Amino acid sequence: MISITTHTRLRAGCPHILGVAAICLLTSGCLVGPNYQRPIAQAPPEFKENVPPPNPPHGSWVTAQPADQILRGDWWKLYNDQKLDALEDKIAINNLTLRAAMESYLQARAQVSTARSSFYPTLAAGPSITREKFSSNQPLASAGDKIQYTDYAIAGQALWEPDFWGQIRRMVEAARANAQASAALVANAELSVRTELALDYFELRGLDSQQQLLDSTVKSYQDYYDLTLTRYHGGVATESDVALAQTQLESTRALAVDIGVGRAQYEHAIATLIGQPASTFSLAPASLDARVTVLPSVPTGVPSQLLERRPDIAANERLVQAANEQIGIAQAAFYPTITLGGTGGFNSAQGGTWIQGPSALWSLGASGVETLFDAGRRKSITEQARDNYQVTVANYRQSVLNGFQEVEDNLAALRLLRQEAITQQAAVAAAERSLHISTERYRGGVTTYLEVLTAQTAQLSNQRTATDITTRQFVASVQLIKALGGGWSTTQIPKQ
């Protein structure tokens, strides 16, 4: 590298570099590297699965404005469940995952201030008192030299590296973009935690519905067992009928007990999400069917809004800008490093004359350093920065595609589950009729208990499937809200 300072005679070694430096100084500096432009991510005009109902005669449907088709605020309140609301309120206060994400954001925000501090000079000052003794036998020493003395000094120093090439500005912008990405990740972590709580809650309530169904079925099968036992003692039924009735009763009791395993796990998961020890938390059983009969309508908006309303997509976009700024930072290394410095203070061998005019000292200077040969290091670093930028662009576009897929997946799930629920209710009704007919035939001695058992099995299976579909509808609804961003918007990212 070559160093040029004002303390030496400037020779015509790098006239181009010095000329560029002079021009940049007059124009408040240059900005090397590419300026950021948001990568293009194609968005379809409409979600494929978000098909409106057929337009009735004379066209009475009114098209809603885009702003009316987006989620807002506390999305979990759409479900009109006070217990869920109370649990969600504890998330922001107690969840440790959110707390860690927030601390990461605060750390990233502090890095912006660290980068911005490089715009300003570094100042240092301080006194010193030194007692020194030189060797009497040092080279060129004479008999009259003073070999021992005290040095009193107080001095200040200023160093400043002007941002001629925009390296510091790029560093600040990169740090700001990283901090904004971190803020978006905090929102994404909150969305994930809140949706996980809602999913666990509805899964638990679905198991409560299953438990209620199995408990009522156990009571019904107990009645069937008592009936069969009475008929057996009366000589009407066979011992095989009794055994079948007892088998059906006990196996259903086992299913009812097994539900408790899954319910306990969901209950423990909810406790962890709200920052509470699992051993101190419990939720009273409540049937999902008895609590809510209709799913809330989830406004989807248009696909282009998804780019602004999903925090994970926004975080990836901010990381793209941070990577873009790194290219400019790498390119700035091809230009000279120019430093301005100055020193001033007082120096004396006597304490009484320490801070006096004749003891004053000062020095002003500037230096420029240009690397002439580094075996391609700067070029390779710049190429790494460009390649990393392309990686972040690909990740951003992939996150957009993933977002569209998740919305379409859950819209399709809700549409198909709605159709399945209607069909399944018809199957439940048919199974109930079949069991009623088989029971009457068994009471009349027309058939064996095997026909009743077959009808019982079909009814219970269809009832459990119907309950499971209801749970899956709520799960798909929550997952759709998460896929849509949960009402978040890029306007909530701190500008700083």
Explain this structure.
A 5-stranded antiparallel sheet has the order 1-5-4-3-2, with no helix packed on it. It has 11 helices and 5 strands, in the order βααααββαααααββαα. It starts with a strand and ends in a 13-residue tail after the last helix. With 496 residues, it is α+β, with helices and mostly antiparallel strands. It has a single domain (29-47, 67-122, 165-333, 377-492), classed as Outer membrane efflux proteins (OEP) (Up-down Bundle), CATH 1.20.1600.10. 31% of the residues are buried.
* CATH class designation: Mainly Alpha
Domain unit count: 1
Order of helices and strands: EHHHHEEHHHHHEEHH
**C-alpha-based Rg, rounded:** 38 Å
CATH topology value = Outer membrane efflux proteins (OEP)
Give the number of DSSP strands.
Answer: 5
Number of helices: 11
Beta percentage is 5-15%
Biggest sheet character: 5 strands, antiparallel
Helix content: 55-70%
CATH superfamily: Outer membrane efflux proteins (OEP)
**Can you tell me the CATH architecture?**
Up-down Bundle
